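Whiteboard transcription, Tuesday session. T.W. wrote the structure tokens on the left side:
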């Protein structure tokens, strides 16, 4: 049985961090670029991935090295989310557009 299909071995919080990193974050970036008024989704995603990583640390009690690697991944995701939000807010300021 493959690791992600084995209910006994899969680590859900760590899987969620990977899923967010490789699927959800790029999709969210594209979505906010197309529809800037949805920038709150990127903010929520940054909070969500941080919570999943903390849950993983609490449950798995990884080594310092492993925890550091996951924290670096989470920081990269958060930075990408913040950049998309900043881009939208910069557009709003320069154009005086208000999205509801």
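and on the right, the sequence the group agreed on:
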């Amino acid at each position: 049985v493959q690791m992600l299909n084995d209910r006994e071995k899969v680590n859900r919080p760590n899987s969620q961090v990977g899923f967010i990193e490789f699927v959800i974050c790029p999709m969210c970036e594209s979505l906010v670029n197309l529809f800037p008024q949805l920038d709150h989704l990127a903010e929520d995603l940054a909070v969500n991935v941080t919570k999943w990583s903390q849950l993983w640390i609490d449950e798995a009690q990884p080594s310092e090295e492993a925890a550091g690697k996951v924290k670096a991944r989470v920081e990269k995701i958060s930075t990408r989310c913040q950049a998309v939000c900043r881009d939208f807010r910069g557009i709003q300021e320069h154009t005086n557009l208000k999205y509801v």
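Someone added at the bottom: The two ends are 48 Å apart (CA to CA).
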